[in-house]
Design a protein that fits this description.
three-stranded antiparallel sheet, HU Protein, Chain A, two-stranded antiparallel sheet, about 30% strand
């Protein structure tokens, strides 16, 4: 089973007793804030849940799976999530 953005909106609306339209705005503002901070190379830390940051991956030689030909893969920035202590403990306790 997968929780989608729409599922998250429904959860926020019911838990916070908000109209769905306001819950959509709340979820959107939070996600946009996280994206904007990562774009500025800032770390986003949600205590107990985890932290988001951007990591730099270096250039490397890859391989085209169809042809086996070597391909130059350029460096890139990727988002990274590290779960917090509370989240790790909650998952291990199940």
């Amino acid at each position: 089973m997968t929780m989608t953005k729409a599922d998250l909106v429904e959860h926020v609306a019911s838990e916070a007793n908000l109209p769905r339209k306001q819950a959509v705005e709340v979820v959107q503002v939070v996600l946009e804030g996280i994206i904007a901070a990562l774009h500025r190379d800032e770390k986003v830390e949600l205590r107990g849940f985890g932290s988001f940051r951007v990591r730099q991956r270096g250039a490397r030689i890859g391989r085209n799976p169809k042809t086996g030909e070597k391909v130059q893969v350029p460096p890139k920035r990727i988002p990274y999530f590290k779960p917090g202590k509370h989240l790790r403990e909650a998952l291990l306790g199940q």
